[in-house]
Amino acid sequence: MNQRKQRVVVIGGGITGLTAAYYLIKKAREDKLSLEVILIEAGQRLGGKIQTTIKDGFVIEKGPESILARKQSASRLAREVGMEDKLVYNTDGRSFVLVRERLHGLPGGSMGIPARIGPFVTTGLFSPIGKLRAAADFILPRSSHSSDQSLGAFFRRRFGDEVVENLIEPLLSGIYAGDIDRISLLATFPQFHQVEQQYRSMILGLKKDTPAAKILNTKDGFLTFTSGLESFVTAIESKLHPATVLKGVKVEKVVREGADYTLFLNSGHMITADAVIAAVPHLAVQQIFSAYTYFDELKEMPANSVATIAMAFDESAIKKDIEGTGFVVSRNSDYTITSCTWIHKKWPHSTPHGKVLLRTQVGRAGDQTIVELSDEEIEKIVLEDLNKTMDITSKPEFTIVTRWKDAMPQYNVGHKQRITALKQQLSEEMPGIILAGSSYEGLGLPDCIDQGEEAVELVLEYLAKK
């Protein structure tokens, strides 16, 4: 390695970029590397979509609401930055799917796959014909698809339209805010493809000790921090030297110059780097690297818009309570909201005694116009929807509407192949440029943290050879 101090610039201060900056600095300190790390964030705060509001004793998440517990990277990072004692698990509670004006308890695993036969047979979610069609999974042959296919095509073939539309679609589209008939199987749940190929029947395969079966195991639940997810961001940021974090600075373009890269900033300044981790959304990456045509692929990758709505009530306002922690909404229902979580039940620490906190989401693939409405219009629509299942007798004490424009990248069929090809081309044409974040290999917080860690390993491997 050269004697001069090498410089790595991380573009983007969301959880992926924060993770990369933290672990780069830690590695440099532990291994006594001559390394300078600079984190550049266009906004005035770090954390990206992680935003917490503390109001009147309520802890309100405006973006991501929790962390999947079985993925260990977030808990590990929490220990690193001294936040482990703030971690708390969600309470147990029944979840529902709303179909044609009626709430039905989920009969199977968290993804809606009928891994347990009894509850699936007795549920009112499906007609007898729908249940009989789903049972065809026991005799259907393996899929002949060796390449990618949509989640919708895969599950419709195995279980039929009724199971997909009334159960699997509302669950999966709630995660990705996308069209299940366009979302890639291999980029989201490749384990299901593997189970089918190995066991033929999905139901039988999920009874085995497989990676996909572990996905359906909800006993590990979800995690958050009693002080809110944004406190996690603050803790990570506290481990970074303030001089290495540039906020309110936008990278306008990156140009390769020999073995190095020059970053042009909106302040008029330039920074030279040995390596760059681009941890910003794919549309921003395409703009930053617009001089290079192989990034044009990212322009074709769609991103959907959603809004989250938090409503606080006195518990006396809710006349029809429901035992559970929330529900998702089938497209076969006359609702605008796509989900509702009873936050005060799922996360008791988030809500003062005697109060109720509801969190809903709006915005579907192909129907995102509601996100553009005013706060007042959105509140009115959401209350009308909630009153179809709950008897709410007064207006909220307050409502917080948060819009996330083009914030949900869509992993459409062929996504994994396209991203793999782009990263391979980068390694050949622009070595030292690393892509990481929710646009590529997972939307959840642990997925983004994983990508931040992987980016660190790739950068250090590259710098060691430079």
Automatic annotation (TrEMBL):
Cytoplasm is among the record's keywords: yes
Cofactor: FAD
Main location class: cytoplasm
SUPFAM superfamilies the UniProt entry points to: FAD-linked reductases, C-terminal domain, FAD/NAD(P)-binding domain
Domain Amine oxidase: 15-460
Pfam family, one: Amino_oxidase
Gene Ontology terms: cellular component: cytoplasm
Pathway where this protein functions: Porphyrin-containing compound metabolism; protoheme biosynthesis
Regions that span the bilayer: 7-25
Gene3D superfamilies for this protein: FAD/NAD(P)-binding domain, protoporphyrinogen ix oxidase, domain 3, Protoporphyrinogen oxidase, mitochondrial, domain 2
Cellular compartments annotated: Cytoplasm
Catalytic activity, reaction form: coproporphyrinogen III + 3 O2 = coproporphyrin III + 3 H2O2
Keyword vocabulary terms for this entry: Cytoplasm, FAD, Flavoprotein, Heme biosynthesis, Membrane, Oxidoreductase, Transmembrane, Transmembrane helix
Family per record: Belongs to the protoporphyrinogen/coproporphyrinogen oxidase family. Coproporphyrinogen III oxidase subfamily.
Protein's name in the database: Coproporphyrinogen III oxidase
Organism: Peribacillus deserti
